[in-house]
Amino acid sequence: MSDTGKAWVFGDDIDTDVLAPGLYMKGPLSTLAEHCLESVDPNFAPNVQKGDVIVAGSNFGIGSSREQAVEALKLLGVRTLVAKSFAGIFFRNTLNFGVVALACEDAGKIRPGDQISTNPAKGKITNHSTGETYNCDPLPAQLLEMVIDGGLVEHLEKKLAKKDADQ
Q1: How far is CA 149 from the centre of its chain?
Q2: Of 42, 57, 48, 96, nearest in space to 75 by CA
Q3: How many CB atoms within 10 Å of residue 39?
Q4: What is the per-residue pLDDT across 5-60, written as a single tens digit (0 to 9) for each?
Q5: Distance CA 6, CA 78 (A)
Q6: pTM of the prediction?
Q7: Half-sphere CA count of 147, side-chain side, radius 13 A
Q8: CATH superfamily of 3-166
């Protein structure tokens, strides 16, 4: 699994309240997604493209454990996040919803608009705009399989269906 896209770069301590603003939590997910990150970059939600990659500093996803933060990103087409570090619950939520989250010490070297590709199995990020390659923490095979299946629920459904078919 590898994604290539434009980098949307954000700083440290981007919290889930910015990713999924509380004002829009009672509405449909599509409305929530329209306001994702708007207080940090009002151009993000209307312009992000499927396959684009969010790049951030430390503590991405800090704050409340709202799963809708990841769901909004996924609805907008973001399938990969790169950050110096992630909040623990947010990191687990990304995997549970089928979104790759890669911890990369060199995330700060990636500039807005850079074309990057990621290889979560090998723990590599390639910046096609600069020609640089960065190391990141690879995702273990079992977690990568879960992400490829679409997330935890889809992964378990696939395993149960296979088990039923084998019986």
Answers
A1: 15
A2: 48
A3: 10
A4: 999 999 999 999 999 999 999 999 999 999 999 999 999 999 999 999 999 999 99
A5: 10
A6: 0.92
A7: 25
A8: Aconitase, domain 4 (3.20.19.10)
